[in-house]
Amino acid sequence: xxxxxxxxxxxxxxxxxxxxxxxxxxxxxxxxxxxxxxxxxxxxxxxxxxxxxxxxxxxxxxxxxxxxxxxxxxxxxxxxxxxxxxxxxxxxxxxxxxxxxxxxxxxxxxxxxxxxxxxxxxxxxxxxxxxxxxxxxxxxxxxxxxxxxxxxxxxxxxxxxxxxxxxxxx
Length: 170
What we know:
Elements: H1 3-9, H2 15-27, H3 32-38, H4 43-54, H5 68-71, H6 76-82, E1 84-90, E2 93-98, H7 104-117, E3 121-125, H8 128-135, H9 137-167
Parallel strand pairs: 2-3
Antiparallel strand pairs: 1-2
């Protein structure tokens, strides 16, 4: 059963519209999901069908705040390349949102990252939109690192000035 078949079974699409969606996706450069959205199928219905098809639970990242400590488990470059993002650590398991859980390269990369962190992982299906919003959190992480480095440099400079003042007897 395909994602489109699941949508038909759930009466989200009728058979005629399903055939037209499949034909349009086949003939165009657009993904099946984009064609479905253009045809009026909600992102939530698509994610539910995809979840059922792949056997991977869905996780919405709307209004989810991913702590910087969690983002540090997966480098930004890896997240962007493989389209996965760490979501949380629960009971010593790294929860990872993945746009395409069938991507073998992404799975291999996740296995490597998890073994390096000495932590098992659990995969959740996330939408492309949620992934895009969540990956922007890395920009905040780099901003925090820059701010921390700046504060450290200021502290070091202050200590240097204090040391000079002490030498000069001030």
